[in-house]
Amino acid sequence: MNKSDSERIATILENIGYKETSKINEADLIIVNMCSVRQKAVDRVYGMIKNFNRIKKQNPNLKIILTGCVLLKDKNKLKEKFDLIFDIRDLPKLAKFLTKQQNKQTDDYLSILPAISSPITAYVPIMTGCNNFCAYCVVPYTRGREISRSPKIIITEIKKLLKDGYKEIILLGQNVNSYQKDDVNFSQLLKMVDNLPGKFRLRFITNHPKDLTDELINTIAECKKVGPYMHLPIQAGNDQILKKMNRHYTVFYYKNLIKKLRKKIKNLSISTDIIVGFPGETKNQFNDTAKLMRSLKFDMAYLAQYSPRPQTLAAKTFKDNVPKEEKKRREEILNEILKKTALENNKKYIGKIIEVLIIGYDKKNNLYGATDTFKHIKINSLIHPVRSHSAKGTVTVTLGQPASNGVKINEFYNVKITQAASWGLEGCL
Prior knowledge:
- The protein is of the alpha/beta class.
- It has 13 helices and 20 strands.
- The protein has a five-stranded mixed barrel with strand order 14-15-16-20-19.
- A hairpin with a 2-residue loop joins β8 (180-181) and β9 (184-185).
- The radius of gyration is 23 Å and the shape is globular.
- The model is unreliable at 382-404 (pLDDT under 50).
């Protein structure tokens, strides 16, 4: 969502005449789009201030702005460090601040068409905010309650993206599967997008287990453009910790969901989110999470050490009593489990021919792409790409530009998988 929001910020700036610079010392304007979900992201913003002050001494006219998910506590601390701090929902007012001209475009920031940074993948927010109030999460306090966009507007936006050549559409929401607008639920919206003409992939993030209905599972299985991939956060593998987190489901319920998904959806790839060191988490409770990871064999897990967030129930109610060293140890244990299960899952692809969307070239000039299960694959072949270099030294690849053997970026190809690692695959055309 932060990437998607930044693309909308770029649209506002471009409309009033700003141009992007790769050199921060040359900037007339710096906008920091902040995330408050983890303390580490907040600490990075505080760490930037010294550098900003140095640049501002060289250029007193420099404006520095902070937006995104900013808690009141951080707003109060940072208000003297930035020329403006505004909620991302107030993005339409940015043009007025910078130019003193009233913005006539819209009051709804999500209706601002984004300056999409990728020529292949487009993010489409379908809702924002959250009603769940998980004990560790600040989203309801920074984004507000859930607001879903009109299905008509969403479909119109996606049609334009497909016409412009985008091959991967990712529907976004803090709780995407609770989408509900104009008598259309998320399952129905998925079908509407899936029925659009053209060859493209459709994905969505992020889901809440309590909103993953049988109807939605059946829809995912039936849709031809929705890949067999599901991101389903578990957060902890112990019922007592889940209750303290205010997650509204049990481990048994979650495991049953996974069972249903794997039964209905062939070759399903599953990723999750897990927090270690939640207040009061004992070693035995953590071991339940480790046991769950071993049994469910996730393809990917995004692991985080708990950090107390102001305004949340956990910060107000519980003492952050798991030592930092113990949190790190627990995270490392889960990461080792993940490496093994991810490798085990990826080895099943060896020898198979998989359809891959060609994305581009990595830093070592290897062609790479992505499977419909959200796995990155390095493609080994005798490809010698023709690439263009700008005056600034950046490398660009034009959409549809062929390599010497005819392979094109942003097109689908069948690739034979030859090798597997924990975090990716290798194959040849």
